[in-house]
């Protein structure tokens, strides 16, 4: 039986992970729970899963270290949103514990540092994003030496067919009506701007140690194909399933084995799929992220920080939809050529980018 610890246990990723634990009591036991919520809610989950170790976010990073040491998990699901999830990933990686990673910032802000820790400790990092989980598995099946291109699919968000003029007047409520996935506010807005797909390009470039030129994005509104790889002979291979985050989470929890999830199995009969080129001029955050990924250094940190500031400003009705990309572009115009040497450098760059983005607003 595999012992799992869930960081962000009341969020969408954490809830899905705990649902799988409930479905497979003979396969998984919940050894630890952390949440940015009330102690009462956490205590209820602990009682339900007979979990001996819990932690609320108020107890900070030292508390997470104690939680890891007490729970002694085989694998940690990091479902914490935002930059707050980075240092918990560091604690997991340096302890040699396998990490089912849903926190984008771990990769976008500090992947070289995290990977170095994992390599030294022997920790395995298994991506949980549906797109990167698909790529991870496809590369495993096809062999990394045979991969010529990674193709990341994008739903296109709620504004896929909007004109530039229509985009000028969209509301927060409009942006939060994602056609396929049910997610938190910030990531849903990022899907509407294609910033989320840009972040995924950055992640793919780092996770799979490839060049940006070998990564492409295709809009696939049905969200049934989660990503593809093209092998050296020109043939595309795809991973297909219903759009349910429990699929990639189950894959990460069971890795390196493949186990029956008990979830709905996809059937091709009666289904249709469509594909389009992304409209880069109308959704410029994708190109800005690709450029940041290509430049490396602190550019990816700046992109992530500026997008977070601007996306929340839009959610709070302080700026219009198109101002999100303008804010990120202005932030990236600064000098981000310094390569972070440690986590202090990472957070210093993050702080600087947030200040520039705030000033741009």
Rounded mean pLDDT is 95
Question: Major sheet: order of its strands?
Answer: 3-2-1-4-5-6
Beginning-to-end CA distance, first to last residue? 51 Å
- Relative strand content: 5-15%
The count of strands amounts to 10
Global outline: globular
Sheet of most strands: 6 strands, parallel
- As residue ranges, the low-confidence spans are none
Specify the helix fraction band.
40-55%
Radius of gyration: 20 Å
| Broad structural category | alpha/beta
> What kind of assembly state do the chains in view correspond to?
single chain
Summarize the structure in words.
The protein has 361 residues and is of the alpha/beta class. Helices cover 47% and strands 15% of the residues. The protein has 15 helices and 10 strands. The chain has a 6-stranded parallel sheet with strand order 3-2-1-4-5-6, sandwiched between helices. A 4-stranded mixed sheet has the order 8-7-9-10, with helices on one face. α1 (12-23) links the parallel β1 (2-7) and β2 (28-35). α13 (299-315) runs antiparallel to α14 and α14 packs across α15 (343-360). The longest helix is centred in the first third of the chain and has 18 residues, at 104-121. The radius of gyration is 20 Å and the shape is globular. The termini are far apart. The mean pLDDT is 95.
């Amino acid at each position: 039986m595999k012992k799992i610890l869930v960081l962000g246990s009341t969020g969408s990723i954490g809830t899905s992970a705990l649902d799988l634990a409930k479905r497979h009591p003979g396969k998984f036991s919940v050894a630890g729970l952390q949440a940015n919520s009330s102690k009462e809610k956490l205590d209820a989950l602990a009682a339900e899963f007979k979990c001996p170790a819990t932690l609320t976010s108020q107890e900070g990073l030292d508390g997470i270290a104690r939680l890891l040491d007490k729970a002694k998990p085989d694998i940690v699901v990091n479902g914490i949103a935002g930059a707050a999830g980075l240092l918990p990933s560091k604690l997991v990686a340096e302890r040699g514990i396998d990490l089912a990673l849903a926190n984008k910032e771990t990769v976008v802000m500090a992947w070289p540092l995290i990977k170095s820790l994992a390599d030294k400790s022997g920790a395995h990092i298994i991506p949980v994003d549906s797109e990167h989980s698909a790529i991870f598995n496809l590369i495993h099946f096809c062999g990394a030496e045979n991969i010529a291109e990674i193709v990341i699919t994008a739903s296109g968000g709620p504004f896929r067919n909007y004109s530039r003029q229509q985009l000028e007047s969209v509301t927060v409520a409009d942006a939060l009506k994602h056609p396929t996935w049910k997610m938190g506010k910030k990531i849903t807005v990022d899907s509407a701007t294609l910033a989320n797909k840009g972040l995924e390009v950055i992640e793919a470039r780092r996770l799979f140690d490839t060049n940006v030129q070998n990564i492409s994005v295709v809009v696939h509104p049905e969200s049934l194909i989660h990503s593809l790889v093209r092998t050296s002979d020109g043939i595309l291979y795809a991973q297909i399933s219903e759009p349910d985050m429990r699929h990639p989470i189950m894959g990460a929890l069971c890795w390196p084995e493949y186990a029956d999830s008990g979830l709905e199995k996809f059937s091709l009969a009666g289904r249709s799929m469509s594909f389009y080129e992304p409209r880069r001029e109308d959704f410029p955050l994708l190109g800005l992220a690709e450029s940041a990924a290509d430049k490396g250094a602190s550019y990816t940190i700046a992109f992530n920080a500026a997008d977070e500031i601007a996306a929340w400003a839009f959610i709070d009705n302080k700026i219009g939809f198109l101002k999100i990309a303008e804010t990120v572009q202005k932030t990236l115009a600064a000098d981000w050529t310094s390569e972070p040497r440690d986590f202090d450098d990472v957070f210093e760059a993050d702080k600087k980018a947030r200040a520039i983005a705030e000033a741009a607003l």
